[in-house]
Amino acid sequence: MNPQVFTYGETQVRTIIKNGEVWFIAKDVCSVLDIKNSRDALGRLDEDEKGVVLTDTLGGKQQMLCVNEAGLYNLVLRSRKPEAKQFKRWVTHEVLPTIRKTGGYVSNDEMFINTYLPFADEQTKMMFRGVLETVRRQNERIAAMKPKADYFDALVDRNLLTNFRDTAKELEVKERYFIEWLLDNKFVYRDQKGKLKPYAQYVPELFKLKEFARNGKADVQTLITPRGKETFRLLLKNQTA
């Protein structure tokens, strides 16, 4: 697996596309954030936030520790370097939100890249081409299996929303497996607090965000719509067929 490299300041950060998701080489991220011991820092992350990839280096193929988007955010939170805030803002406010909001609907990749990433180096552009293609394929799968609108409009009117646990029960799969499947297939992601949030292009069709109060504080819960439940049922069935 060949890493693709982009430059942040004077530091090169290697990235890998793994199962359609962008992973960051942990050592490079820790270098930007001035975290001295990358292995110790990764030891504090959850298992689904870190991994190992086999990459080509000057010394041959090597196994390297890496982190996904959620893992990267957790490392940012642990860094005391002033640079961490700027790095996090670049990742969270410019690059990833742009892909989430428009990546699945852009018909011309080059136009998208040239519009939103005009000053990026070629390796960075190659990385985003891969991400755009992954998002597009996912949306095509959903469109092909989209249930009849009239049936689901009637259910939505009855407000039959379910949480992740109850949806997993109805789909007859384990909750952990269902959540990992949603993460792997880029339907949801974990925010900086580790909460599951849907990607913007799937709201409100597959997910709805409901505000509620807990201990006097406002919070938001991600719920799955009837259309989302049936879409996931069909996708899971197709996956095991």
From TrEMBL:
Designated name of the protein: Phage antirepressor Ant
One Pfam family per UniProt: ANT
The organism's place on the tree of life at top rank: Bacteria
Gene source species: Geobacillus thermodenitrificans
Organism placement in taxonomy: Bacteria, Bacillati, Bacillota, Bacilli, Bacillales
Domain Bro-N stretches: 1-103
